[in-house]
Amino acid sequence: MSYPRSSGAAVVLVLSLAWPGGWLSPTHAADSALSAQASFATGELRTALVDEWYDRITASDVEVVEAVLGSASPAVATAALTALSDVEVSRWLTALEDLPSPHRHLTGVLAKVDRTQVDRLARLTELIDPPAGGFSGDPARGENRATADTRELRYERVEAPLFATGRRASLDDLNQGRLANCALITAEMSLALYRPDLLAGMVTANSNGTYTVRFADGERVTVTDRFPVDEDGLLVFTNTSQAPADVDALWPLVIEKAYAQKLGGWDNTEFRWTADVLSELVATKTLTPDSGSVTIEAVAHWLNGNAVVSAGSRFGSDTEVGLPPAYSDGRLALGHAYLIVEADQIRGTVTLANPWDPDANHVELTEDELQASFARIEVSTIG
Predict the structure, then answer these.
(1) Fewer CB near the last or first residue (10 Å), C or N of the chain?
(2) pLDDT (average), residues 363-383
(3) For helices 26-49 and 59-71, what crossing angle results, to 10°?
């Protein structure tokens, strides 16, 4: 795909030099070149987006749209999209929704067009702001999802720095919300603690106010700075119950939303294992030892070797007979993920961080309690 970048622009430039004080100034020359490129791009897009028989476009048409917008400058891409009607743009977006990885085709456009077009695209497709209603409870907290408030949540813009001013990512930036995605939050906790450099490298802030997240498989997903809030205007997922104006660091919300878009919806981020999620965020190697025989010494060895040690608690009901004391006394929740952050061989204990306020909510277990309490312990090496 090529655009008339040089020929038309060169003629205008010669004329502007011939009449330096005339109406064809360098600014006019640049405007004329932009207009010509945008007009050409719009024509190419319209050709791909017209289907007189089915009102739908094919996968090859999608590739044409991607090639035109992908090779265009931000200004040209913005102007070309602006010239298209909502009906024309919707044909393209509807075709994307039918593809296995729609964000592969959409992410580059979202990262370059201006804010007006980003908001317009979000209005025309649910790929950008996935429906957020009906996720009002985490069973690990004892919340009954069957009777949860399922009213549709709205999206609101959150204006905050990607990382808190003057510091890297930290556990203080995280707090699991109404989604049962403790594995994702625990994976993010491990990166904030041990590899904040990788965490920072995952997210790029784009000039139009969007953010692009790069996952371990190389896929990039671009998200807006709009996140679900409840009827009181408070965040409902990561950093739950916090007012948007009080957010210090945006990265947890950005990664959570990008992960939801990558997987096809908020609900697809739930009920997963921490090591599996971590391997989708960054490259890892994982082993899963027999949780009933893991020793404090082994945990200390793994932690000293810079491994991430996560633990998935047992499943079932809190009325189940024979549950270990750590459940009955409230230290652990069923069906929940934890990050083991310390192993004290002298005292014979491990300390776990809970994704419900991980900076402050820590649990201490003896070796016997560790071996009796978890369905799965995972040891992941990053890189």
Answers:
(1) C
(2) 96
(3) 170
Give the DSSP letter string of 109-161: HHHHS-HHHHHHHHHH-TTTS---TT----GGGT--GGGS--PPPEEEE----
Taking every pair of C-alpha atoms in the chain, what is the biggest distance, in angstroms? Answer: 92
Closest by CA to 288, choosing from 379, 373, 225, 185, is 379
- The pLDDT tens digits of the residues spanning 90-144 come to 999 999 998 888 988 899 999 999 999 999 999 999 999 998 866 656 778 776 5
pTM: 0.88
Digit-coded pLDDT (tens) for 309-342:
999 999 876 566 678 999 989 999 999 999 999 9
Task: Bin 14: left if φ > 0, else alpha if -120 < ψ < 50, else beta.
Answer: alpha
**Which of 98, 107, 8, 87 minimizes the C-alpha distance to 59?**
98
Asked if 8 and 32 count as a contact pair (C-beta separation under 8 A), the reply is yes
* Count of C-beta atoms within a 10 Å radius of residue 34: 15
State the average pLDDT over residues 27-42.
Answer: 77
**pLDDT of 208 strictly over 60:** yes
- Beta pairing partners, 212: 204, 222
Q: Are strands 154-157 and 220-223 parallel, antiparallel or unpaired?
A: unpaired
For residue 313 the two structure tokens come to 């608690």
Handedness of CA 233, 236, 237, 238 (dihedral sign): positive
